[in-house]
């Protein structure tokens, strides 16, 4: 049985290899044996693995899986053989999600509705978990709030927009290209009133467009309640990759009183004037790391509740993820290299 693994070279370069692996013959009390039908690919966070002391010679790749239950442990209560399930393998999993069969704890899985495809389920579960973590857990989203999603046409940004709109939040989003802008302007819900999901699309690809001015104009000068970024420019001279990202001063300037800034920038540094501005607005900064659900068992019930809600929203059409056409296993290495370099705009799912 083959699986996809990540190996670090001596120069620190990430290499992806397909290698043979085997399933343990014994099944734990609360474990479930799943035949994998689809596995989504997300970038491997090497730094996080190092921080959590999970560094190994070969790091398993592909953690978001959907499949059929083959066998259950003696104390499993949630599932039985032939159930269709979706879930996320834990960070310390020994097996790659691209193996034909995996062993996974029952508390990391939820039932998959029949009308949701394997590939939609696997492709959406992690981005949707991220969106819930950002909007519900960290930002305490409520009806009537105004939300700014940076890079709204990314797989994560799209699900954040759909979740916020469902809860009655006014959504603004940035587009990093003309194609993205057209895509966001055409977004409509699949159920209910067919109004645009995004109240205003801000084309940051156009140098004439000012992000702060656009947000303040849209909110009558009050600023937005929630900002979700995809990173920020920390210095004046950043790489070409970061040219569409806002400066931290811009984000603080467009925040309203009591606003929440949810950031994915793990090494964010705030200068005293930035902190002072946040203090004057009674605003807060939260760091978005959806892996905390796996790292801590303290909120296991809430984690499962979120995943159940995600699959329900997929079944009703509230969530419509951005998923590429499924790729076969032999193309997984090439696809994963592109995913790691963040060259793809849609979520990649491997068909098994």
Spell out the blueprint of helices and strands.
Elements: E1 2-8, E2 14-20, E3 31-41, H1 46-51, E4 59-60, E5 64-72, E6 84-88, E7 101-105, E8 109-111, H2 118-138, E9 146-149, H3 155-166, E10 170-175, H4 178-185, E11 200-203, H5 211-218, E12 224-228, H6 248-254, E13 255-263, H7 272-281, E14 284-287, H8 292-295, H9 300-316, E15 327-328, H10 332-340, E16 348-351
Helix pairs in contact: 2-3, 2-9, 5-6
Q: How would you describe this protein?
A:
The radius of gyration is 21 Å and the shape is globular. It has helices spanning 46-51, 118-138, 155-166, 178-185, 211-218, 248-254, 272-281, 292-295, 300-316, 332-340; strands at residues 2-8, 14-20, 31-41, 59-60, 64-72, 84-88, 101-105, 109-111, 146-149, 170-175, 200-203, 224-228, 255-263, 284-287, 327-328, 348-351. It is α/β, with parallel strands linked by helices and 352 residues long. 29% of the residues lie in helices and 25% in strands. It has 10 helices and 16 strands. The strands form 3 sheets. Strands 3, 5, 6, 7, 8, 15 and 16 form a 7-stranded mixed beta sheet that branches. A 6-stranded parallel beta sheet has the order 11-10-9-12-13-14, sandwiched between helices. The termini are close together.
């Amino acid at each position: 049985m083959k699986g996809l693994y990540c190996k670090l070279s001596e120069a620190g370069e990430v290499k992806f290899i397909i290698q043979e692996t085997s399933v343990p013959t014994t099944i734990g009390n609360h474990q479930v044996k799943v035949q994998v039908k689809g596995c989504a690919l997300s970038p491997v966070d090497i730094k996080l693995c190092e921080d959590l002391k999970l560094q190994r010679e070969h790091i398993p790749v592909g953690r978001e899986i959907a499949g059929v239950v083959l066998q259950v442990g003696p104390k499993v209560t949630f599932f039985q053989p032939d159930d269709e399930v979706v879930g996320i393998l834990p960070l310390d999993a020994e097996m790659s999600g691209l193996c034909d069969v995996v062993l996974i704890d029952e508390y990391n899985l939820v039932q998959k509705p029949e009308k949701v495809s394997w590939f939609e389920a696997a492709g959406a579960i992690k981005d949707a978990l991220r969106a819930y973590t950002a909007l519900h857990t960290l930002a305490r989203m409520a009806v009537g709030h105004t939300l700014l999603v940076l890079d709204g046409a990314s797989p994560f940004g799209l699900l954040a927009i759909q979740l916020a709109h469902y809860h009655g939040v006014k959504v603004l989003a940035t587009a990093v290209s003309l194609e993205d802008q057209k895509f966001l302007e055409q977004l409509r819900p699949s159920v209910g009133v067919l109004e645009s999901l995004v109240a205003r699309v801000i084309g940051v690809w156009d140098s004439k467009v000012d992000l702060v001015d656009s947000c303040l104009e849209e909110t009558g000068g009050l600023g937005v309640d929630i900002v979700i970024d995809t990173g920020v420019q920390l210095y004046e001279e950043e790489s070409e990759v970061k040219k569409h990202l806002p400066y931290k001063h811009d984000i603080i300037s467009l925040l309203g009183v009591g606003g929440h800034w949810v950031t994915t920038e793990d090494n964010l540094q705030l200068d005293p004037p930035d902190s002072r501005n946040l203090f004057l607005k009674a605003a807060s900064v939260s760091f978005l790391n959806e892996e905390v659900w796996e790292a801590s068992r303290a909120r296991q019930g809430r984690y499962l509740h979120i995943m159940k809600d995600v699959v329900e929203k997929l079944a009703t059409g509230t969530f419509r993820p951005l998923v590429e056409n499924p790729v076969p296993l032999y193309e997984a290495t090439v696809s994963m290299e592109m995913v790691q370099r963040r060259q793809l705009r849609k979520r990649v799912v491997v068909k098994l």
